[in-house]
Amino acid sequence: MSPIIEALNLSFRYAGEERWAIKSINLKIYPGELVLITGPSGCGKTTLCRCFNGLIPHFYEGELEGILIVDGLSIVENKTCKLAQRVGMVFQNLENQLIMLSVEDEIAFGLENLNLPRDTIKERINEVLSILGIEHLRYKSPYELSGGEQQKVAIAACLAMKPKILVLDEPTAHLDPLSSKVLFDILSSIRKRLNLTIILVEHRLDMVASIVDKVIVMDKGQIILQGGPREVFTTPIIKAIGIGIPKLILLYEDLLLNNLKLDFPPLNINEAELLLRKLLSR
Ligand SMILES: Nc1ncnc2c1ncn2[C@@H]1O[C@H](COP(=O)(O)OP(=O)(O)OP(=O)(O)O)[C@@H](O)[C@H]1O
Ligand SMILES: [Mg+2]
C-alpha cells in the first residue's frame, strides 16, 4: 500500500522568523491509520497540520523546503481549495471556524461552495448529524453550544465534505475528561465506518494511547520519534522532552524496575488488568 501522506525533508519558516518552525520532517502515513502527533508547546504540531491542507504555503507566508504529497497532490503545486476537499481540518481555536447562524447552515456552507444539488446537501447533513449524534442541535446557533458540542459540529462540517483525511488539532483543549472520551470514541468508530485517515494532535496521551496506530513525537520543529504507541512510549528519550507519558506505561516501567515484567506495555485499563492477572497467577 502506498502512503496517503508523505513528507520528504519538509521544512517551513514563517516570514520574518529566523527559526524553522518545522525542520526536515520525514513521515509516511498510510490510508486508514489513526496517527497521533504530540510534543511540547511550540514544537511545530500546528505548523505541520497547516501544511497538510496547503494553508502553508498558500495562506501563511514563509519559506518552504522539501516535499509534501497529500493524496497524490503536492501541497506546493495545488491550491488549498483543492487540498481541502481531501483534508478536513478542525482547528485548536473553534471561534474562528464556526461562522454561520445555525448548525445546519454551518454544515451546508462548505457543501454549497462545492455546488452540490440541494438534495445531496440535505442527505449529507442528515448523515453527519446522525454519525455524531447531534440531530438535536440542527437548528441551534453554534454560539449557544458548549465547547464539546461545537467540537462535534466542526467535525460534522468537515465530514460532510467527505474528506479522505481528517486532521484534528487539539480537539479536546476545552473539553472535560468525559466529553473528551466521547469524542475519542467517536473518532475511533468513524475511522473504520468512513474509511478515514485521522491525524490527531493531542496532549492527553492517557486517553488516546489505545486508539492510535502510530505516534509521532515532535520537539523543536523536528520529529524525534515515530512508531507504534507501545514502542514510542517506552523509549527512554521520551522522558526528557516533557510530554505526559501514559500512566499505565509508567506503571509497566515501575513494575519492571521491581522485576515484575508484564508481557507488554498496556495501553488501556482492560489490557492492564489482564496482564496483571496473568502476572499474579504465575
Ligand atoms: N503565524 C505564525 N507566524 C510566525 N510564527 C509562528 C506562527 N505560528 C506559529 N509560529 C511559531 O512557530 C513555532 C511552532 O508553532 P506551532 O503553533 O506550530 O507549535 P505547536 O506545537 O502547535 O504548539 P502548541 O502546543 O502550543 O499548540 C513556534 O515557535 C511559533 O511561535
Ligand atoms: Mg498548536
Polypeptide structure, described:
The protein has helices at residues 45-52, 55-58, 80-84, 103-113, 118-131, 147-160, 177-193, 205-208, 229-233, 247-257, 269-280, and strands at residues 5-14, 22-29, 34-38, 62-70, 73-74, 87-90, 165-169, 197-201, 214-219, 222-227. It is an alpha/beta fold. α4 (103-113) packs across α5, α4 (103-113) packs parallel to α6 (147-160) and α5 crosses α6 (147-160). It starts with a strand and ends with a helix. The mean pLDDT is 93. It binds adenosine-5'-triphosphate and magnesium ion. Adenosine-5'-triphosphate (ATP) binds at residues 14, 17, 21, 41-47, 60.
Strand order of the largest sheet: 6-7-8-3-9-10
Principal-axes geometry comes out as: globular
Bound small-molecule species: adenosine-5'-triphosphate, magnesium ion
Largest sheet: 6 strands, mixed
Strand runs, count:
10
Low-confidence stretches: none
Mean pLDDT: 93
How large is the count of helical segments?
A: 11
Into which percentage range does the β-strand content fall? Answer: 15-25%
SS-based class: alpha/beta
Order of helices and strands: EEEHHEEHEHHHEHEHEEHHH
Termini separation: 42 Å
- Tell me the radius of gyration: 20 Å
